[in-house]
Amino acid sequence: MGQWERCERLLPHVLTVVAASAPMVRSLELASLLIRTADYLLQRTQYEQAEPLYLRALHIREQSLGSEHSQVAFPLSGLGDLSQEQGNYQQAELFYLRALRLWEQAPTQEYPEVAWLLNNLAVLYIEQGNHQRAEPLLQRVLHIDEQVLGPEHPDVAFPLINLADLYREQGRYEQAEILYLRALHLWEQTIGRDHPQFAFPLNGLANLYRDQGFYEQAKSFYQRALTIREQRHRAQHPETAETLHDFARFYELQNQPDQALALYQQALAIRERRLGPAHPRTLDTRTRYACLLRVCGRHKEAAMLEGATTSIST
After folding, report:
1. Is the pTM of this model over 0.85?
2. Rounded distance between C-alpha atoms, residue 75 and residue 92, angstroms
3. C-alpha angle 236/228/173, rounded to 5°?
4. What is the DSSP code (8-state) at residue 106?
């Protein structure tokens, strides 16, 4: 039985224990269990279930250890991740910055946790188009991981991929390709080509080659990334929607609207269900889908999508 299956089997028992514990219980062991369970639920995109567990863990640690203790940073970091996944970027930044302050003022820094938080804060800035703030954070993460874990550790691939994403968005294609390929090689040697994470550099390279007009190469990488995400990471996961959305853009640029519309439709359905109708990624897919429908002369369908977007934003 795999790790995900074991966690799924144990989850009802853990939630029963949590529900049975009185609200006034302030056990630090309970707080740790709450955080681990919330982390799992977050990975499974069960956001509404994860949030109260993080908040309860935060309350326990603040009451037991004090609001300035470094251990309080763990639920804060989790709440930052949760807020970011839900598209609440301003709230996510506040959680991240408070957690970072607690860890950096601690006598002994939690190096892996600090690096992971810096990585996620940088991704948040990339999502907001703030490359100037993101790049030095990712450089710092890469330095920490290489020094503490070693240059061949699989976790080094995360800042490599995020830096590559940033460079691709800036048009620094040669630098981006080097980093994507290094991450790809690193994970080939460590986690294997069938691991769900392997789709990240594949999807990044697909976008890179699409942006440069190398369409045959791009299509091959999209297909590989989509196969991994649909088979290994569940077809209804937001990461699957990411590849569907990017692949749709590929077909749109190739002037193949039927293929693009089908993929946009799939991506939109997943994002609306898993991220919510007002999430920035959902809005992006809906807007591109509606624009392409208009180009294809399907004005009534486009108007319905645009009307949905307007009602959400007002």
Report:
1. yes
2. 12
3. 105
4. S
